[in-house]
Amino acid sequence: MKLQAKLLISALFVAALPLAHAGDFDDFGRVVRVQPRTEQVRVPRQECRTEYVQAQAQPQRGSGGQIVGGIAGALLGSQVGGGNGKVAAAAAGAIAGAMVGDHVENDGRNYGPGVQEQAVRQCRTIEVVETRNAGYEVTYEYRGHQYTEIMSRDPGDRVHLRVSVVADRY
Which residues share a beta bridge with 108? Predict the structure, then answer.
């Protein structure tokens, strides 16, 4: 090999020497203490209940019996009497027939105002305070020094470390 090639290779080797000593490597530290960290969080939640209240009821009445009864009463009334009396008898028959028809259709029930119980659902939003895990405060020892870090999980009895070695520059 020529002298120039040997000098060039030697120069590259000398330039790369600090890079071989500096760098990163993996190691483990001994865990001394793990303290869970918690936080209080407000969470909205809906709370519902059903109450029963008294309400006025107006049931539907049938009117078909009144119509049929009125027509039947008017026909029967028109058969009684003569002249102006026929008209009066037809009118009286219509009124009586309507009343009888209504009574028959509605079974004689009284449909005045009544009271009925109704279910009413009432809901409200409340805030509940929950305690959640916010990580772990881990204290570990490495080469005679203690360090504390916040970690997302409990590492156990030893912690994996990525160590960087960098020379001080004065």
Answer: none
Q: How far is CA 123 from the centre of its chain?
A: 12
Q: What residue numbers bound the domain in which 90 lies?
A: 60-111
What is the tens place of the pLDDT at every residue in 120-134? Answer: 899 999 999 999 999
At how many degrees (to 10) do helices 84-105 and 64-78 cross? 150
pLDDT band at residue 45 under the 50/70/90 scheme = very high
Is the pLDDT assigned to residue 23 strictly greater than 70?
yes
H helices present in the chain, as ranges: 3-21, 64-78, 84-105
The residues, any chain, with a CB within 8 Å of residue 29's CB and separated by 6 or more, are: 140, 141, 142, 147, 158, 159, 161
Number of domains composing the chain? 1
Indicate the Cα dihedral angle 14, 19, 22, 26, nearest 10°: -130
Farthest CA pair distance, the chain: 155
pLDDT at 165 over 70: yes
75 domain residue, yes or no: yes
